[in-house]
Specification:
17 strands; 3-stranded antiparallel sheet; 4-stranded parallel sheet; 10 helices; 317 residues; alpha/beta; 37% helix
């Protein structure tokens, strides 16, 4: 038995069903789950007709724009996207399957991340009878499995919990600037890759609606531009500083997922407008991080005098 309904659960169930007698996925509430091809035929075609570097660039842009289109449609026409998702489920699940109970969340598409199953493997496993989905709450564990709040019982030889994760910003590192502790939760993020009033620190805040590495690549390019600029000009420090008092502070990750909400108070914030706003858009970030100037009203370049020379400080100690 797998307890959960997120990406971990929907990945585990088909894999376990290959050798287990039967796998039950027990979920408190359903998630949006969509089938995607394990291999993209369009990507394979582009690699056959284009040089590798151009093909990779074209594939990256196609996938980024496709995901952005789906995301924007979900935000603007949620009921339409719900109908499209339900139609896809009807084609892949047994006739008469209770989709409303087991695969229809209470929230709108992309209020939380969608789960992708390669080649619909989860649905194929359900069709074969090797797996089943139960939507209920756990009352308690028993000697043979689980007692549900509805009064039903589920027998299980093994129970695997795939019920979410705990987000930890920067791995729990304690930041300080000139000996003063930095309260990360009160800081804004600059272009989604630096922290307000913290010099020479770059972070990676990826997309919640696309591949995380897309934003990481853009961040790396921007940091390289910063380092090259400071090397050429003889500067040693770049610090984002907010001088706009009208910028409103908002949660960094705009998702209603439980694991995001539980950790939101420990994370930095995004602002209500650029450059403090975190865009969930590869196109907008590409323009902001690769095509824009390094100089703006928020970025301060400096070459401060060290508080104490290392050798002199060691001698005095």
């Amino acid at each position: 038995m797998v307890v959960g309904s997120g990406a971990t659960a929907v990945t585990l169930v088909p894999a376990m069903a290959e050798t287990a007698a039967h796998v039950t996925m027990l979920q408190r509430s359903p998630s949006y789950i969509v089938s995607v091809p394990a291999k993209d035929p369009l990507a394979d075609a582009l690699r056959r007709v284009l040089p590798r570097r151009r093909a990779d660039s074209a594939i990256r842009w196609l996938k980024a724009l496709l995901m952005q289109g789906v995301y924007q449609l979900s935000k603007r026409r949620p009921e339409l996207v719900k109908r499209l998702l339900k139609a896809g489920l009807r084609r892949q699940l047994p006739e008469g399957y209770d989709i409303d109970t087991h695969f229809t969340p209470a929230y709108n598409p992309w209020d939380q991340r969608m789960c992708a199953v390669p080649n619909g493997d989860l649905f194929k496993t359900i069709n074969s009878g090797a797996a089943s989905v139960v939507t209920d709450r756990i009352a308690t564990f028993t000697e043979t499995g689980l007692l549900l709040e509805s009064g039903g019982e589920l027998e299980a030889d093994i129970v695997i919990t795939a019920t979410g994760l705990e987000l930890l910003f920067l791995g729990g590192v304690d930041l300080s600037v000139d000996g003063a502790a930095v309260d990360v939760s009160n800081k804004l993020t600059y272009k989604g890759m630096m922290l307000e009033d913290v010099p020479n620190l770059a972070i990676a805040v990826g997309y919640t609606n696309a591949s995380w590495t897309l934003k990481c690549d853009l961040t790396c390019q921007y940091v390289a531009r910063l380092l090259n600029h400071m090397h050429r000009t003889g500067l040693r420090q770049c610090t984002p500083v907010n001088g706009d008092e009208d910028v409103e502070r908002q949660p960094l990750l705009g998702l209603s997922s439980g694991y995001v909400q539980r950790s939101a108070h420990r994370f930095p914030k995004q602002g209500s407008r650029f450059p403090w706003q975190v865009h969930q858009s590869y196109l907008r970030d590409y323009r902001a991080l690769t095509r824009s100037s390094l100089h703006d009203d928020a970025m301060v370049f400096s070459n401060p005098t060290p508080a104490a020379e290392p050798i002199a400080a060691a001698a005095s100690a």
